[in-house]
Write a structure and sequence with these properties.
With 686 residues, this protein is an alpha+beta fold. The chain is 32% helix and 19% strand. Strands 10-17-16-9-15-11-12 form a 7-stranded mixed β-sheet, with helices on both faces. It holds the Pfam family DUF229.
Length: 686
């Protein structure tokens, strides 16, 4: 009996084990089927997020129906960005490993005693003649020190005759050019004593301007990466954060041209929302002309206006490379690329230093300049120049690309440092009492995979812009400050407006500012009924969207997708043939087009959105945007595109800049060498 019970118990255990195993297999099978379904229909995690996302899930920055264009208040750590959260905190590379042999004291370079008494250095100042052309001035040998006489950039090569060790560096010294003092007739008034006298200020106020820019970061990006610095600005200063700020283009160039010139970088075309509005389309920036232009050929820059008014000026960019991404003016979009300045745009200009340091070290550590962090180097120079010219009016522009260009997390490396810099210097009496400070970006991040995800696309259109004005503005300019805070709270604002604001500041804030479309001075009230069209924002970059997925037949979506594929094929063919004809030395041999045409395989998912307000030339709100993911033959390649549809004018346009592809590595190998920008859209016939 006992043995029989034991046998039955064993049988039951075996039966339960089989059932459990079978149940486990069923669960695994169901998950596998779900994964295969998602894989077949969406292919990437981004696509899964897109299929879930809806505009209705995001609250708007303003709920007031009187605000015609209000962007979305995005979650700081939305699902799209969760994967980056594990990257925090980021540790900065150790720059102290690079031991310096010299010390820089203003315009004097001193050889350190700690490197030995057998050290001799060759000093050669670097003179910039024009873009890409530099002259090394005669070498001066010394075993003690050297004082800069002609330029701010110096190449130093040292040798210890005892140890036979060698050391080299290119340095950027804070040299005070005596010519600046004689040409700068204006003097920045000291308001410290006046502030004590109940704000009885002089009638004409001449202000300094300090613009500190981080390339390619959104407002959410800034808050995620530098929470300490952002918290200090928003909670411990009386500055204003522009909550409804909208980018006007994808790359740096179409955004910074409005900032510097108040002109548009847009190319006039029938589908462009600026047509018939009287806007200057800047024909000097057409694709066929742009690559032969220097920045000097553009309309006068804002910094030139300040320079002519006697201000000491600085133009600093921190990218230590010599390629297409080394400047905001050399940003290689599909349509635009401008050469840099023929002549230096400012008294202090960093490009000679950055280019020559790159030449010396070939591939310098991007986040270190000598034994300093790249961020620290920029901050030290700003403070040194500011102190040297404390009696002159100043316009300083600093652009930090090192920590933000192509990364969503590296800015976090300098969070604590930025907080200290903002607190100890930018918000000090030395700066704040007589300076307009703008901490800003030009656009959100666009080079990573987030742009075709709805949340990422909206995030890209909302850059970080924060402004500090002197504390006595409230008592001297109460109406202007009321307008500034109102504009920052919920009005649609762009870089056209920042340009107009700084022009207004140069003329005098208490003076009447005559605006030029489309910019408003932010010291005047921006209308609540302002839309993307009236603000100068191309419709495909407008962040004030509303979703209209319902009621759009799938046949329409298929037709739109097929038309966009035809446009892509025509785009590649036209660009290729045009480039080849220019290169051809003879017309005897016909030009062979090596790419095959794409054809639609399957539509994965789509969204249809419109901008708020009347956003086209007819004023009937009939421009829609299709966000479509599809698979195309050959090779079943995944595409994500944005398509602009102007129903009234029967115009459909593929936004080429928006195209993202999966599984396209190597497909365009046959033209990659000669046509790198087209290669990613090409599938070679062989």
């Amino acid at each position: 009996m006992f043995m029989r019970r034991k046998f039955l118990r064993a049988q039951n255990v075996k039966r339960i084990t089989h059932l459990s195993g079978g149940l486990l297999l069923v669960i695994l099978g169901m998950n596998l089927a779900k994964w295969l379904y998602l894989r077949r229909n969406f292919r990437t995690q981004d696509d899964i997020w897109v299929s879930k996302q809806t505009l209705f899930s995001y609250p708007r920055i303003s709920d007031s129906i009187r605000i015609a264009c209000s962007q979305f208040r995005l979650p700081l750590w939305g699902e799209v960005f969760q994967s980056y959260r594990k990257s925090f905190p980021r540790k900065h590379p150790d720059c102290s490993e690079f031991r310096s042999w010299i010390s820089i004291l203003g315009d004097k370079v001193v050889i350190l005693n700690s490197v030995g008494d057998q050290v001799t250095c060759n000093f050669s100042e670097i003179l910039r003649m024009e873009e890409g052309y530099y002259i090394m001035l005669p070498v001066v040998m010394s075993n003690s020190s050297y004082s800069l006489r002609f330029t701010d950039v110096l190449q130093v090569k040292c040798r210890n005759s005892s140890s036979q060790k060698e050391w080299a560096e290119v340095i950027y010294a804070a040299r005070k050019n005596p010519a600046i003092v004689t040409t700068s007739t204006n003097r920045t008034p000291d308001f410290t004593e006046t502030l004590r006298q109940e704000h009885k200020l002089p009638p004409k106020v001449e202000l300094n301007v300090l613009v500190w820019m981080f390339d390619g970061i959104s407002s959410s990006f800034f808050l995620r990466n530098v929470p300490k610095a952002a918290s200090y600005l928003t909670n411990s200063t009386d500055g204003v954060l522009f909550r409804n700020f909208n980018t006007v283009g994808r790359n740096s160039l179409p955004n910074m041209i409005p900032f510097w010139t108040e002109h548009s970088c847009a190319i006039a075309r029938l589908t462009h929302p600026f047509v018939d509005t009287g806007m200057n389309h800047a024909e000097w920036l057409e694709p066929t002309k742009a690559k032969t232009l220097h920045v000097d050929d553009l309309p006068p820059l804002l910094i030139s206006d300040y320079l002519r008014s006697g201000y000491v000026t600085a133009f600093y960019e921190d990218f230590q490379v010599i390629d297409a991404y080394d400047s905001i003016f050399n940003d290689p979009g599909k349509y635009w690329m401008i050469r840099n300045f023929r002549k230096p745009p400012a008294h202090y200009y960093s490009r000679p230093f950055m280019c020559n340091r790159f030449k010396l070290f070939k591939k310098p550590s991007p986040k270190c300049i000598g034994n300093l962090r790249s961020s620290t180097h920029a901050q030290n120079l700003a403070q040194s120049w500011w102190k040297q010219h404390e009696q002159e009016n100043k316009f300083f522009f600093f652009n930090q690309m090192t920590y933000t260009h192509g990364s969503l997390t590296e800015l976090n490396m300098i969070d604590t440092e930025l907080e200290g810099f903002f607190e100890s210097w930018m918000n000090s009496d030395q700066v704040r009492n007589n300076t307009i400070v703008i901490i800003m970006s030009d656009h959100g991040n666009h080079v990573l995979r987030n742009e075709t995800v709805l949340e990422g696309m909206l995030d890209q259109r909302l850059p970080w812009v924060f402004m500090l004005v002197p504390p006595w503005f409230d008592s001297k300019f109460p109406e202007q400050m009321k307008a500034l805070r109102s504009n920052a709270h919920d009005r649609l604002v762009t870089l056209y407006d920042v340009h107009a604001t700084l022009k207004h500041a140069l003329k005098g804030i208490d003076e009447t500012y005559i605006r030029r479309w489309p910019g408003y001075s932010l010291f005047t009230t921006v209308p609540m009924n302002r839309t993307c069209r009236t603000a100068g924002i191309p419709a495909n970059y407008c962040g004030c969207l509303r979703e209209i997925d319902k009621g759009v037949p799938f046949d329409t979506i298929r037709n739109v997708t097929e038309q966009s594929i035809r446009q892509l094929n025509e785009h590649v063919l036209t660009k290729f043939m045009k480039a080849e004809k220019k290169k051809a030395t003879t017309t005897a041999n016909p030009i062979s087009f090596p790419c095959t045409n794409w054809t639609l395989h399957a539509i994965q998912h789509y969204k249809v959105v419109k901008t708020q307000g009347s956003e086209n030339t007819t004023g009937t709100d009939d421009i829609a945007f299709y966000l479509i993911s599809f698979l195309a033959n050959p090779d079943n390649v995944g595409f994500k595109v944005i398509i602009e549809n102007d129903v009234t004018n029967s115009l459909l346009r593929l936004v080429v800049d928006s195209i993202q592809m999966t599984k396209n590595e190597g497909l365009g190998y046959c033209i990659r060498g000669k046509h790198p920008t087209l290669a990613k859209y090409c599938c070679c016939r062989q």
